[in-house]
Fold each of these.
Amino acid sequence: MSGVNTRSAFILAFIFFGVFITTEAQTSTPAPNTISVPCALRSNTSCSECLQNVTCLWCTPTKQCLDYPVRNILPPRSVCPLNDARWGLCWVNFQILIITMSVLGGVIIISILVCCFCCCKCERVGNKREDAKVERQTRARKSRQKAKRTEMQMRHDEIRQKYGVEKENPYARMDDH
């Protein structure tokens, strides 16, 4: 069980480290004089120069620096195809970004489900052990009660014999005694 927890912790640490590195790379401070230049004026320059402004989108085949279409989550194909669009970092295109985020999301969801399954399974195993222990205790208690009951029955039979009250048929009616 500790192996699953160790692997899960390692995976989560790796993901957080990756997110930290990515955000560090994206939060590099651009030069103050270049941030006010509109994206269209940075066309036909370079990707890194265009992406100094976070509102710009670089289209590789046309070498255009465009304003990011904020009304859409992803830039439409008419603006720039996903595999050619760059935003934030020049080496990450939207197509790879979408695939990577989908895979990471799937891995996180699957790891959460596996952890939940393992926790529930271990809890059920613990309950089976506890149920078996309770069952053993119940059997021991019943056997002690049965032994006491037979001992008490023997004692009562001895007393009946001593005073001459025999119990031949417990269901017989007492007619003329």
Amino acid sequence: MQVAELQQNLVQHQHKENKIMCKKIQLSVSDTELHNNHHHNSCGCDVDGCHKVEGEDLFIPPLNFAMVDNGIFRSGFPEPANFSFLQTLALRSIIYLCPEPYPEANMEFLKSNGIKLYQFGIEGHKEPFVNIPEDTIREALKVVLDVRNHPLIIHCKRGKHRTGCLVGCYRKLQKWCLSSVFDEYQRFAAAKARVSDQRFVELFDISTIKHLPITFSSFKRLD
């Protein structure tokens, strides 16, 4: 099987795993309750069982949430409504890619759940010729690669550009071909995809960090 086919299979597998995970974290409800309560599926998942039942709380993932690898997730900025969902991930760390201070409510959530915040302030630019700080992405990757920080979630504001660049560089370390890396980036960025982001990922030099071990943790958090 060709490398590109293997990478495509991995993407499909991860999409399937996201659906399974979404199903597992939902509160147990009976088939009758599901039939009688056709509420909007807030998580965007088409898995049977991801429906809100009257009187029950629903775990709502952040915008653009997805699994990157075992113990590594990505999303847009978590809102308080997402905190219950994040608790199901048993996070050890959060990688925050924006320069703005973390909101007080989010900091309280981190403290109460023993989650460490790693902030790498990257300005959000729409201009095509603004350079993305390569050194900052490199330092963030070192945090991602350290399994002692897993499970972790990577996020910026919308989970599209800055998060997409970091994940794209991570895929290069996994030896993904560029077409597969860009397919994944575009799936999250959609109409907001930027050529400058993809160019950055293409030119990113992994030689200074490729010696680091690339091992993957399980979902279970080890205290």
Amino acid sequence: MSLRNAQTASSSSPPPNTTFSPEYKFDIFLSFRGADTRTNFTDHLYKALVRKGFRTFIDAAKLEKGEIIDQNLLQAIEESRFFIIIFSENYANSESCLNELVKIMECTARGGKAFPIFYHVDPSEVEKQSGKYGEAFADHENEANLEREQIQKWRTALTEASKLAGYHIHYQ
């Protein structure tokens, strides 16, 4: 694991069973592709955050291709102060993940803070939508029901998020 664009951060964490930011319903919102990371990374991260006393939102639903993000999920994003975005190999294949990301980046423009984790994916692939991310966008562009404007929103959100300070996790 390597630190990418590291910024100094306090190593202290809130005491257990306390809230970090009372004006928000959730301290942290986790955005991830369930099929890639739910059982081997995200669940462990979620449990660790909860143990430290962070009110953390994790989507327990498994959306299928073509399903629309539930309004409750968008509301949970709005009600969160911090966002951990776990970019994985197939994150860009999911329209739901990409729509979540657009909403998250809208929230960061209003003061929310996002922190990306590049899990088994090179940050430059996310930024430039190359490699697996490029393949995913080629597929999205061939889908008749998707508007070019929506695809451009996804591209912009990925580029913006990829430039944020975060972690690159790559096991060899």
